[in-house]
Write a structure and sequence with these properties.
Pfam families: UDPG_MGDP_dh (PF00984), UDPG_MGDP_dh_C (PF03720), UDPG_MGDP_dh_N (PF03721). This is Nucleotide sugar dehydrogenase. The chain is an alpha/beta fold. The protein has eleven helices and 15 strands. It has two domains: 193 residues, NAD(P)-binding Rossmann-like Domain (Rossmann fold); 123 residues, Rossmann fold. Helix content is 35%, strand content 15%. Strand 9, helix 11 and strand 10 form a beta-alpha-beta unit.
């Protein structure tokens, strides 16, 4: 259902100049829930995504969303306009950019999608529009990719158009925090830009927190996710130490969590996956390398996180060796492959690298995940989920998905619990 576009620079006060209150560019795990949150508050919303298949999935409801967002999608129906044409955003009073910002195989930021989205927003911007970037990126991106190109077009930022950064804060698969209840940090290129962005985001967000600049808002998001990365790396180290000392690390973590101040529990695992933790801190490291600054704590944490899947493979080799057989030729079942419970998302999932490592060692590998019917590893191996948990020489418990419990396995099944929290196996060994 494509929407008619206005020419770039069309005057904001022209009769019927706008067909939409907000256009959301990028309808992935952030953009679609954001569009639905705006629509639920009565705004006229246009969704823009270059992937026609994604739009068809949205129309048919075949998308990975929280139950509450699925209800919003059904309620919106055809009233949620979608298009593959970025020029259609010119017909909106505001534009919100929600595209992925991954890293490549060398852990260098991949700015391709962000650059394309910002270029399109600038090309079709018109006086009166508010443009808000939400994608996690390097400090200065909002000025570099939006404010400066808009000024080059002759549009005065803070007078003709209004530009701000407000980092996304969506936790896929987690329904404990409603989208509108999570505070939005807002930083404008100018104070008027911040005010206009607050006016827009305040249409659905209950709480707003303004910072003094777009750069401060960009750095806020990097701090949030780098904090998590560092603590994940730390708790993985404690898990290793607890194993050497014969202690249950989860018992120790839960005991520490009884302290009502100065401590936040993190739990160890097979690595870190998803769109944030394995990627976002590298935007900071990449930028700081240009200024010859190496933050040692962040760098060490990211190196440790990157090495964790290989550690799982080596632990599998050791566990099988202790049981009297080698990894080569062993039947290994990976239980759960999504990067976290309750989602279909495989982006940066440690399971993909673990499977490749097991295959490289000569193991026969299968997996079961009720939410992920098929996958392709980084090494190009295609696998389909087996029907259910089944006996194997070794089961590696990777993601505790609903419907992927150990209870269906024999009581004496050898299980390498890479989550430290998979109950139900007498021969369960921790990572």
């Amino acid at each position: 259902m494509p929407s008619a576009a206005l020419p770039a620079g069309a005057p904001a006060d022209r009769p019927n100049a706008t067909k939409h209150d907000v256009a959301v560019i990028g309808l992935g795990y952030v953009g679609l829930p954001t569009a639905l949150a705006f629509h639920a508050r009565g705004l006229r919303v246009l969704g823009v995504d270059l992937d026609a298949g994604r739009l068809e999935d949205i129309r048919s409801g075949r998308v990975d969303l929280l139950h509450s967002d699925h209800e919003r999608l059904r309620a919106a129906g055809a009233a949620l306009a979608v298009t593959t044409d970025p020029a259609a955003a010119a017909a909106a009073d505001a534009v919100v950019i929600c595209v992925p910002t991954p890293v490549n195989r060398h852990l260098v930021p991949d700015l391709g999608a962000l650059s394309a989205a910002c270029t399109a927003a600038v090309a079709h911007a018109r006086p009166g529009q508010t443009i808000v970037l939400t994608s996690t990126t390097y400090v200065g991106s909002t000025r570099d990719m939006l404010a400066a190109p808009l000024a080059a077009r002759g549009l005065r930022v803070g007078t003709d158009v209004f530009v701000a950064f407000s980092p996304e804060r969506i936790d896929p698969g987690n329904d404990r925090h409603a989208h509108e209840d999570v505070p939005r940090v807002v930083g404008g290129v100018t104070p008027r830009c911040a005010a206009r962005a607050e006016e827009l985001l305040g249409r659905y967000a209950e709480r707003l927190h303004r910072v003094t600049s777009a750069e401060a808002a960009e750095m806020t998001k990097l701090l949030e996710n780098t904090f998590r990365a560092v603590n994940i790396a730390l708790v993985n180290e404690f898990a290793d130490a607890a194993g050497v000392l014969g202690l249950d690390v989860v018992e120790v973590i839960e005991a520490a969590a009884t302290k009502p101040y100065g401590y936040m529990p993190f739990f160890p695992g097979p690595g870190a996956g998803g769109h944030c933790i394995p990627c976002d801190p590298h935007y900071l490291l990449w930028q700081l390398r240009g200024d010859r600054l190496n933050p040692p704590v962040v760098a060490a944490a990211m190196n440790a996180i990157a090495a964790r899947p290989r550690q799982v493979v080596e632990r599998a080799r050791q566990v099988l060796s202790d049981a009297g057989r080698g990894l080569a030729g062993a039947d290994v079942l990976v239980l759960g492959v999504a990067y976290k419970p309750g989602v279909e998302d495989l982006r940066e999932s440690p399971a993909l690298e673990i499977i490749d490592g097991l295959l490289a060692a000569g193991a026969d590998v299968a997996y079961h995940d009720p939410l992920v019917p098929e996958l392709v590893t980084g090494g190009g191996t295609k696998l389909a989920s087996v029907d259910g948990p089944r006996p194997a020489d070794l089961v590696i418990a990777h993601t505790p998905q609903p419907g992927a419990e150990l209870g269906a396995l024999p009581h004496d099944q050898l299980v390498l619990d890479a989550t430290y929290r998979f109950p139900g196996a007498a021969r369960r060994v921790a990572l």
